[in-house]
Specification:
By secondary structure, this protein is an alpha/beta fold. The chain has four domains: 61 residues, no CATH class; 103 residues, PAS domain (Beta-Lactamase); 159 residues, Reverse transcriptase/Diguanylate cyclase domain (Alpha-Beta Plaits, 2-Layer Sandwich), CATH 3.30.70.270; 232 residues, EAL domain (TIM Barrel), CATH 3.20.20. The protein has an eight-stranded mixed barrel with strand order 13-14-16-17-18-19-20-21, surrounded by six helices. A five-stranded antiparallel beta sheet has the order 2-1-5-4-3, sandwiched between helices. Strand 18, helix 19 and strand 19 form a beta-alpha-beta unit. The longest helix is centred in the first third of the chain and has 42 residues. The N and C termini lie far apart (135 Å). The model has no long low-confidence stretch (mean pLDDT 89). It binds ligand C2E and magnesium ion (MG) (2 copies). The site of ligand C2E has 24 residues, from strand 14, helix 13, helix 14 and strand 18.
């Protein structure tokens, strides 16, 4: 400023060559005036900028969701935002700049937003700040929210504190943790948590104590799910879970492993009788009928039990053995329980061997088709033959289809095997004299594949067998599973011109409604009713089936006829055909030809 005036004086004197004091006074005066004007303008601009900056700062910090505080080196508050005041329900009259940290915490304590020791808290905080450390800790508000607090030192002393409400985040994390360990449908612990707990418990079995693992498979689940729908299936599982929880004791840990499989771990067992008691309670719980979409549903279960340390101490081994025991219970006709035995392992291994051998047999062509004649009860003439698969095993000799068909169905090999039988039988039937019919068994698994009609059409085309001579035998299981899809396939087959027979009638669910749902050409009455013919009840069942079939223009064939008495009773009851050892056992393809040739019916050709 002075330099500026001096410069102006110098310029003025230089120009005038002398000093005019008035001029100089006027000059200095005007310079000062101009300077004052400039200075206040500059100040105003600066103040305005500062204000604008302050406003922006206020907007920013008061619109943060976090609580924010800035303290100076003397632990006095410089800045605090509204979120902080609101978060703890504090008074803005008290919490304002200049207040000491200790007074803020004391105020929080009075208003219930802090329940620790005020001095201890302040001392601990200043200790960590003095060490230049950022401190993190979590606190709960009286209304149950979780706040995460971070205190971070700033250059030149003092610190910034942020307070963040992490309640929702923590809840979401807890939910995710829960979902990872609990089943969403029943809220029971899931497989992962069951394994975790079992592993812990297996590692700490006290001497003279045992641990039991129960595998529970709900027998009725599939049929409830298929016939009443998924909603009913879900309700069944929920009811099973509720009933199991009701009967469980504190040392019994229940889990849902998935699908219709549940498991229970029983710990601190003194005596196996305690486990037998648990098995009884489980059956009681599962057999409790429940109301479901207006139906009274009852369920049952197959239960397998393995005990540690007797049946193993490793997680995998004990689980595998409980599973084997459960399968043994299923194989024993379901609705029962089995404790693990080492022989079960051997049986499963044998089954696995059978599966491997079967794959090889399909490649080697070790399967054969035998034929059993079906005979008319009106005129004792052969009407056709049923194709029955046979397996000539290189070491074990002939294996019965009763043994290998279930394994083939479980493994899906039945698709290949069934197709092979169909093609071989159609070809054989083309060598028969006359119009003898050919019956071929079709497994429910083949029905599910969706390409059955196509394969049948291909076999007929390849062999040249007229469709009217082919009869497919299906069981009720086909209709129970996927009603609509199965009915659609049946109609496709019918459209090809083949005949459809309902096999083993009376052994499955035997719902007469199946007879209404599809117009079968024939009903094959199971061997067990033929066996019971001598009894009053036995003959009246056959009579009822014959009457229903006749009313719907279906034929009836009695299976497993072994005696002349049975044949005569069936004839008297009005049954149309029979099949059984009385007339002939199933015989190889080469042996069926003479039988057919000797039958007068061959003339029909
Ligand atoms: P199925 O279709 O009910 O066949 C009748 C079964 O009864 C045959 O058993 C036959 O040998 C037997 N049988 C016939 N007459 C008598 C009798 O008078 N007394 C006695 N005790 N039994 C008699 P097999 O050949 O052992 O077949 C058993 C089952 O295996 C068949 O029952 C059928 O369900 C299934 N099966 C056989 N071959 C095939 C096939 O190629 N595909 C499919 N999916 N299943 C097949
Ligand atoms: Mg059959
Ligand atoms: Mg049968």
């Amino acid at each position: 400023m002075h330099r500026l005036i001096a410069k102006q004086i110098a310029q003025a004197t230089e120009a005038a060559g002398h000093v005019d004091i008035d001029k100089l006074a006027a000059l200095v005066g005007s310079t000062y005036e101009a300077f004052d004007r400039d200075r206040s303008a500059e100040l105003m601009v600066r103040e305005r900028d500062l204000q604008a900056q302050n406003d922006r700062f206020d907007i920013a910090i008061n619109n943060m969701t976090q609580g924010l505080l800035l303290f100076d080196a003397e632990s006095r508050l410089i800045v605090c935002n509204r979120s902080y005041i609101a978060m703890y329900g504090l008074s803005p009259e008290i919490v304002k700049s200049g207040i000491a940290l200790r007074d803020i915490i004391a105020h929080r304590r009075e208003s219930g937003a802090f329940n620790g020791d005020v001095d201890e808290y302040c001392a601990a905080l200043s200790r960590s700040l003095l060490q230049g450390r950022t401190s993190h800790h979590q606190t709960e508000t009286p209304d149950g929210r979780t706040i995460m607090i971070v205190n971070k030192p700033v250059a030149g002393g003092g610190w910034v504190a942020t307070h963040e409400d992490v309640t929702e985040r923590r809840r979401a994390e807890a939910r995710i943790r829960h979902l990872a360990h609990y089943d969403a449908l029943t809220d029971l612990p899931n497989r992962a948590l069951f394994h975790e707990r079992l592993r812990e418990e297996l590692g700490s079995i006290a001497p003279n104590r045992q641990l039991a693992v129960l595998y529970i498979d709900v027998d009725e689940f599939k049929s409830v799910n298929d016939t009443l729908g998924h909603q009913a299936g879900d309700q069944l599982l929920q009811s099973v879970a509720t009933n199991l929880r009701r009967v469980a004791r504190p040392n019994e840990f229940i889990a849902r492993l998935g699908g219709d499989e549940f498991a229970i771990m029983q710990t601190s067992i003194n005596d196996q009788a305690e486990t037998a008691g648990l098995v009884r309670r489980v059956f009681e719980a599962i057999r409790t009928p429940f109301e479901c979409l207006g139906h009274q549903v009852t369920s049952d279960a197959s239960v397998g039990v393995a005990m540690a340390p007797r049946h193993g101490t490793g997680l995998d081994q004990i689980l595998k053995n409980a599973d084997l025991a459960m399968y043994a219970a299923k194989a024993a006709g379901r609705r029962t329980s089995r404790f693990f035995e080492p022989a079960m392992d051997a049986r499963v291994k044998a089954r696995r061997m059978l599966e491997m051998d079967m794959r090889q047999a399909l490649i080697d062509g070790a399967f054969e088709v035998y034929y059993q004649p079906c005979v008319s009860l009106e005129n004792n003439r052969i009407t056709g033959c049923e194709a029955l698969a046979r397996w000539r095993h290189p070491e074990r000799g002939m294996i019965s289809p009763a043994d290998f068909i279930p394994v083939a169905e479980e493994t899906g090999l039945i698709n290949e095997l069934g197709e092979w039988v169909l093609n071989a039988a159609c070809k054989d039937a083309m060598t028969w004299p006359g119009e003898f019919k050919l019956a071929v068994n079709v497994s429910p698994v083949q029905f599910k594949s969706g390409t059955l009609a196509l394969k049948i059409a291909a076999a007929l085309a390849a062999s040249g067998l007229p469709a009217r001579r082919l009869e497919l035998e299906i069981t009720e299981a086909v209709l129970i599973r996927d009603d609509e899809a199965a009915l659609a396939t049946l109609h496709q087959l019918r459209a090809l011109g083949v005949r459809i027979a309902l096999d083993d009638f009376g052994t499955g669910y035997s719902s007469l409604s199946y007879l209404q749902r599809f117009p079968f050409d024939k009903i094959k009455i199971d061997r067990c009713f033929v066996n019971d013919l001598a009894t009053q009840g036995g003959s009246s069942i056959v009579q009822a089936v014959v009457n229903i079939a006749a009313a719907r223009h279906m034929m009836t064939l009695a299976e497993g006829v072994e005696t002349a008495e049975q044949r005569e009773s069936l004839r008297a009851l009005g049954c149309t055909e029979m099949q059984g050892f009385l007339f002939s056992k199933p015989v190889p393809a080469a042996d069926i030809l003479p039988l057919l040739r000797s039958d007068p019916r061959k003339a029909v050709a």
